[in-house]
Write a structure and sequence with these properties.
The chain is of the alpha+beta class and about 280 residues long. The chain is built from six helices and 15 strands. Helices cover about 20% and strands about 25% of the residues. The chain has a seven-stranded antiparallel beta sheet. It has a four-stranded antiparallel beta sheet with strand order 5-13-8-11, with no helix packed on it. Strands 6-15 form a two-stranded antiparallel sheet. A hairpin with a 2-residue loop joins strand 9 and strand 10. The two termini are about 20 Å apart. This is Phytanoyl-CoA dioxygenase. It holds the Pfam family PhyH. InterPro entries: Phytyl_CoA_dOase-like.
Amino acid sequence: MPPAGSLTAEQLSFFDANGYLVLEPFSSEEDVRALRERMAELVAGIGGSNSTGSCEHHRMEMDDFYFKSGENISFFYEDKAFGDDGCLKQPKELSIRLVGHALHEHDPVFKKFSSSENISSIFSSLEYKRPVIIQSRYIFKQPGIGAEAIPHQDNTYLHTEPPSCIGLWLALEDATVSNGCLWAIPRSHKNGLKTQMIKDESGTYFDRTVPSYNQKEFVPLEVKSGGLVIIHGDLVHKSFENLSPTSRHAYVLHVVETKGCEWSKGNWLQRKIAPEALYVS
């Protein structure tokens, strides 16, 4: 049996036409459980066994802590998890927003999954020659407070010339309309990149006005636990705030081509070593 990421001609045609592809199922229950249990261990190790009330948690902000997270495993918290005193209102495991951005490099469980044949076969199917995982994220989408992800294109933030970013979004719990599944505008990748975020000596900014989108054009991408969504770097996608009592865990990889593509010097994520040096055959 071929790896789960070996795409058929029909699947490749759908992805080319629509800018996304849902592979369901993709990962086994064992793989999903291993990733979730390992993340629970990582979260349990933050600041002792129970850090409710601690005021030393990092919010999701584009600052120096965030910019340095590209080469380590860093923890970010939901803004709504904090009280007026600046401290967490509930246990850390119900307050954390995401963990990033180098789980695939520094944690053995996440590295094993990220470098698996199931993952690498996707990029063989897409005819990438030297793909590199440039970023990994574990997203919690906490019940009741999980923040929205505004409409965006991944190439805006992880840019190569020419653009080559592909997102892999693995559901670690059922992702539904009620708990904040992905939404996308089919075929929007055909319209190209609308804006690029630049980080330089003057700060962080967008090179063009961030566009607005017709909300009626978005369609939900509901997926069962273990399913994978492949996302073209120019596809416009988003997720709503999670107001439900159910979390929506996901593991996300962003991959770029390094053969014939140059990593943009204005990207927020700048590695101490060149991206192409991270390639693993």
